[in-house]
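// run 5 | inverse folding | seed 20
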């Protein structure tokens, strides 16, 4: 692996992480993920922006690329920690052992986290928005962007080259052979957009109000390159990823796309019996329907779909007087991420007694969902149940089309 040069003296040194582990211990990464760090060399000082964690040889990969630049961690004067999550700080203690003279720059809120995670209290300097550090011909300008992704998060900007080091913000899941947006192949683009959307939904979505505030704060900057710590570097069209993130943040409260996420579970086929009928009705009404059967599919993919669509169909049986447990997990994930204001219908079978709906209703209220109808039935659905399902699906389709965003931004 070779370092990538963003501008004279600014390089990406990075690691490719495969699909073996779950990201954050919860989210699958079937296409892997990149951990990007950056070196900024001035005439007087050198800064290193965001570390990697010791994950699948990441530290060694970064050291090897630094060696190719004629550098080692001993040559670093400033370590900028935009964000304290261990994917960007995991090798901090080891680095400080190698280079005890390094000065850590982070926000005030990050200082206690540096101690809590790594026991480091010396040579840690807190910086605030608009504060600058002169490297000699290159300046680091800091901007606090709390909650993108943790409360202590900031971004770092180099005005001489217009490069914004945004850490988690504007990032993506997935590995890409090419570093820059203007180099990507068609296949890489086909991976990048959905993996950006899934990354956003899984990692950032809960903090969407902060994303919108953060984007507003950046409005005055001449951003010529967006260099996140996951994914690619946006050099040709940095506005595109900022605009996509703005759209994704706005999806939280809707309206989102004129599409439907259809998530369903079935124990013995009686809930499944209505799945093709409802799906066909929605498609006949001209809607794209994103199908997810749980628990066969991970919540990561359901959340990514639900985040982007204005409509939601929940098919779920009652299980021991309550919601089917894998679907409870899905509802919990949707609630944590604030998938608010969706047009929804629910259907499902029960055996000796209902109960799922009673547990479902508080989610509807909490998420401010507009539930257009519920079809519950004992055992197998009757012809009347099927007719009710078709009628409710038509009503859902009408609501989704009336309410959704008119223009797709991608
Ligand atoms: Fe990539 Fe919130 O860490």
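// decoded
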């Amino acid at each position: 692996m070779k370092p990538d040069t963003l501008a004279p003296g600014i390089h990406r040194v990075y690691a490719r992480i495969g699909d073996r582990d779950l990201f954050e211990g919860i989210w699958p990464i079937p296409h892997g993920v990149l951990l990007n760090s950056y070196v900024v060399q001035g005439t007087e000082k050198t800064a290193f922006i965001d570390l990697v964690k010791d994950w699948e040889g990441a530290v060694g990969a970064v050291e090897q690329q630094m060696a190719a630049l004629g550098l080692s961690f001993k040559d670093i004067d400033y370590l900028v920690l935009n964000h304290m999550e261990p994917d960007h700080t995991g090798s901090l203690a080891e680095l400080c052992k190698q280079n005890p003279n390094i000065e850590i720059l982070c926000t005030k809120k990050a200082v206690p986290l540096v101690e809590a995670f790594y026991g480091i209290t010396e040579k840690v300097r807190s910086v605030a928005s608009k504060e600058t550090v002169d490297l000699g011909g290159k300046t680091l300008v800091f901007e606090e962007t709390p909650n993108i992704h943790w409360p202590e998060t900031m971004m770092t900007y180099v005005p001489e080259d217009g490069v914004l080091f945004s850490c988690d913000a504007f990032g993506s899941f997935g590995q890409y052979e090419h570093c820059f947006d203007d180099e990507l192949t068609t296949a890489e683009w086909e991976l990048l957009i959905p993996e950006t959307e899934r990354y956003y939904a899984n990692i950032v979505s809960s903090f969407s109000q902060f994303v919108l505030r953060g984007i507003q704060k950046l409005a005055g900057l001449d951003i010529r390159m967006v260099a996140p710590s996951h994914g690619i570097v946006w050099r040709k069209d940095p506005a595109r990823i900022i605009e996509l993130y703005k759209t994704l943040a706005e999806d939280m409260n809707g309206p989102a796309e004129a599409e439907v996420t259809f998530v369903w579970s079935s124990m013995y086929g009686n809930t499944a019996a209505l799945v093709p009928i409802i799906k066909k009705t929605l498609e006949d009404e001209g809607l794209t329907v994103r199908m997810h059967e749980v628990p066969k599919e991970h919540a990561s993919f359901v959340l990514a779909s639900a985040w982007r669509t204005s409509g939601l169909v929940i098919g779920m049986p009652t299980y021991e007087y309550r919601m089917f447990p894998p679907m409870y997990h899905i509802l919990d994930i949707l609630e944590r991420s604030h998938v608010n204001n969706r047009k929804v219908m629910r259907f499902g079978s029960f055996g000796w007694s209902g109960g799922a709906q009673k547990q479902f209703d508080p989610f509807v209220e909490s998420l401010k969902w507009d539930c257009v109808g519920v079809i519950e039935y004992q055992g197998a659905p009757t012809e009347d149940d099927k007719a009710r399902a078709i009628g409710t699906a038509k009503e859902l389709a009408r609501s989704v089309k009336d309410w959704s965003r008119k223009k797709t931004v991608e």
